[in-house]
Amino acid sequence: MLTVISPAKSLNFDPVDVPATDPRFPDDVASLVRTARRQGIKDLEKLMSISEKLARLNRDRFRDWDQAPTKPAVFAFDGDTYTGLDAATLSADALRHAQTHLRILSGLYGVLRPLDALKPYRLEMGSKLPTRRGKDLYAFWGDRIARALNEDAAETGADWLLNCASQEYFGAVDRKALAPRVITPTFLEDKPGGPKIVSFFAKQARGAMARFVTENRIQDPTDLRGFSTGGYVWQDSPDDAPVFLRPETARTAA
Q1: Which residue, among 78, 108, 74, 70, has the nearest Cα to 3 in the 3D structure?
Q2: Which DSSP category does 77 fall into?
Q3: What are the CA-CA distances from residue 95 to residues 47, 92, 155, 223, 237 (Å)?
Q4: How far apart, in whole angstroms, are the C-alpha atoms of residue 251 and residue 20?
Q5: 236 SS3 class
Q6: 182: exposed, middle or buried (C-beta count within 10 Å: 0-12, 13-18, 19+)?
Q7: Which of 16, 30, 38, 68 is the most exposed place for a label (fewest CB within 10 A)?
Q8: How far apart are CA 43 and CA 50, in angstroms?
Q9: Helical axes 144-156 vs 92-101, angle rounded to 10°
Q10: What is the DSSP letter of 142?
């Protein structure tokens, strides 16, 4: 089983003593960086819906790209999904498995392996950055991400792809070009008015499920039913769209 997750907006660049690998699409990354360098501060404010201070930071990042520090991707991102994944506590054996079976979707890098060397950036997949390939990053990546995932699935013998990414990021995967069958889990919180998706908890749960699959080497979709991190309980649901519900008492305890 191959698993994909989304990056977070924030990055953590404290040193991590883990050997890094090279990202898959260096020429595409360089092309996007050149395009981003042509954007002024006001352009970046509008493109990314950020403050002038953050726009200036990201202008400087793209300007100084060649001298920027790097860090293995899975340790560079902060955010709710990565809290659930908690990569810093994965064993060396689990991390090796993740390197071949876990993928991070990225607006700038396309697809990252956990240990691929990442430079600090902000460029979300939904950004409407025009390039020669089209009006936004979905057009820029086209079917490249799907084809890369196909290659990884073939190399590992994976028939299934577990989608733990957000809709914004998984939308960059051309489903028509994707070979593995897709599993998209849903995580619900039991509320007085009925079960409900709570974004903060759902993101954490997606990261925790990615960890569960990595640590347990899950290959059979039915084995996902055993996921119970944080108190979630599998509900009677299809293998390609499993639903997990967390009782309020379990959420409080977690």
Answers
A1: 74
A2: B
A3: 35, 5, 17, 20, 30
A4: 36
A5: coil
A6: middle
A7: 38
A8: 10
A9: 130
A10: T
Print pLDDT tens along the chain (254 aa). 999 998 877 777 765 667 789 999 999 999 999 999 999 999 999 999 999 999 999 999 999 999 999 999 999 988 899 999 999 999 999 999 999 999 999 999 999 999 999 999 999 999 999 999 999 999 999 999 999 999 999 999 999 999 999 999 999 999 999 999 999 999 999 988 889 999 999 999 999 999 999 999 999 999 999 999 999 999 999 999 999 999 977 767 66
Task: Give which of 129, 145, 217, 203 is closest to 179, Cα–Cα.
Answer: 145
Q: N- to C-terminal Cα distance for the chain?
A: 28
DSSP state of 188: E
Q: Kind and range of the H or E element at 112? A: strand 110-112
- Alpha helices (H) in the chain, listed in sequence order: 26-37, 41-48, 52-63, 73-76, 80-85, 92-101, 137-141, 144-156, 167-170, 199-216, 248-253
Task: Give which of 177, 197, 217, 243 is closest to 3, Cα–Cα.
Answer: 217
